[in-house]
Amino acid sequence: MIREKIIDRIVNNSEIWDFIIIGGGATGVGAAIDASARGYKTLLLEQSDFGKGTSSRSTKLIHGGVRYLKQGNISLVLEALKERGLLYRNAPHLVRNIPFVVPTYDWWEGTFYGVGLKLYDVLAGKYGFGKSESLSIEETLERIPTLESNGLRGGVIYYDGQFDDSRLLINMVQKASELGADIINYMQVTSLLKNIEMITGVTAKDIESGNTYEFKAKAIINATGVFSDSVRMMDEKKVKSIIAPSQGTHIVLDNSFLPGNNAIMVPYTSDGRVLFAIPWHNRVIVGTTDIEVEKPVLEPTAQEDEIDYLLTTASLYLDKDPSTSDILSVFSGIRPLVQQGNEEDTASISREHTVFISRSGLVTIAGGKWTTYRKMAEDTIDQAIAVADLEFKPTSTEELHIHGYTTEQNKNNHYASYGSDADKVEKLCKKLSLDKILHPNFSIKEGEVIWSIRNEMARTVEDFLARRTRTLFLNAKASIEIAPAIAKLMADELKKDDNWIKEQLNSFNRVAKGFLAK
Fold first, then answer.
1. From the candidate CATH numbers 1.10.8.870, 3.40.50.720, 3.40.50.970, 1.20.5.440, the one assigned to the domain spanning 414-513
2. What interhelical angle do 373-388 and 74-90 show, nearest 10?
3. Nearest Cα to 283, choosing from 220, 326, 318?
């Protein structure tokens, strides 16, 4: 995936695309995979980097949504559990089964949560990850030795899925490209083209060169998540908003707070949300919050009270109380929730997705969650086919392996997250004599920077440190320390000068500061 070659190809394209997809997050890239797998000519344009927004800032779970059972949303849980099973089957190099322990401190909790999780097992059916069961005090502490033991009565264990969100997204981009889609980052759609009130294409600006282009298609798909309303306003200036943006924040701690492979799930906290503490890349993620935000931004930052809430709530369940000084990184994402009516808070708004079609033919997919991206893509393309007046072809994505698919990869190998590309990455590092580790707290090799440019369309220091690797999310301070070396390697490969390096470091440091706990 060489960006310059893709631009040359799409600019000189003489045919009209079947679909142009706006947005390079999980929803948009999922739609590109679905459309191209069906044989439709597809172009995807992303204004920044793939997964720059919500899709890289999740709780890192592929799950049915235990808390939706409490809401009585059985249909959503059923759908998500099926999609969880399909993704585990199609991307086993990045999706894994992880045990969750629900600690119980009141006499009624063991039975109450036990029954609920048994229902979760039943709903999963053949897509189940393992049977839930009750744990004694001793068994609970054996699995979570750092759990607060005062007043502990036992626990309930169940199984769900965990993944690396932006790594999966990059593999999805690669898969879409392999299927024939033209897919490109840093290409911002600035307006919609119309003919007799019907949308016929888009105007887009290449952020790197400043050049502006027009692209035509039989249908335009708006898959921009929290920015869905802004694209809809390009179509109709006075359109009613459908997005209720909600911010969720996570903190990252050292794994001494939760050693081992078991996660903690607290079903009900002081604000009515579920709290997770999850081992991830040899660190611990604690989250999440749920606060309304007025307007979505590309780089959201945590509020002080969100961090205080996470620290305070985590202290109730861990025998070692975390403090601000223990936070390695803090990251926030904005959920693209769809307004259903007059819900009082965003925690009560459904995570189900909705496909909207405007009078001029703009297809907008909004809502949903990472776990159900494949089903969201299927529903979107089904509708877009009708708008484009194309011959209907059924989806084939239930059985479609994502790029990197392998069942043989050693999970403990540093290169494991690359899946079937692992050997190629390792060989490139050795071939270029770039197998030196870049930071003592990580196993990242110099050659991985080159791989990310040549094969994963990384264009900036932030692309590499935030999304091709997860350094920024795992340790913000370390990512700032490593940035100059990354900038130099990227400049050499991309043939950039010292001014580019300076601009990159300034830009990355501004972003990275938002990941440092105040």
1. 1.10.8.870
2. 100
3. 326
Q: Which segments of 275-368 are extended strands (E)?
A: 275-280, 283-287, 291-292, 329-338, 353-357, 363-367
Q: Please state the φ and ψ torsions of residue 266, each to the nearest 5 degrees.
A: -105, 115
Q: What is the Cα–Cα distance from 283 to 441, expressed in whole angstroms?
A: 11
Task: Encode pLDDT of 368-420 as tens digits.
Answer: 999 999 999 999 999 999 999 999 999 999 999 999 999 886 666 789 999 99
Helices of type H across 357-497: 373-388, 422-431, 446-456, 461-462, 471-474, 476-494
Closest CA relative to residue 289, chosen from 301, 266, 277, 271: 271
Q: What is the pLDDT of residues 85-102, one digit of tens each?
A: 999 999 999 999 999 999
> Buried b / exposed e across 28-40, counting CB within 10 Å, b at 16+?
bbbbbbbbbbbeb
Instruction: Give residues with Cβ within 8 angstroms of 233, minimum separation 6.
Output: 239
Q: The pTM is what?
A: 0.95
**Length reported for the chain:** 518
Q: Which residues of 424-436 are buried (b: 16+ CB within 10 A; e: fewer)?
A: ebbebbeeeebee
User: In which band, very low, low, confident or very high, does the pLDDT at 347 lie, cut at 50, 70 and 90?
Assistant: very low
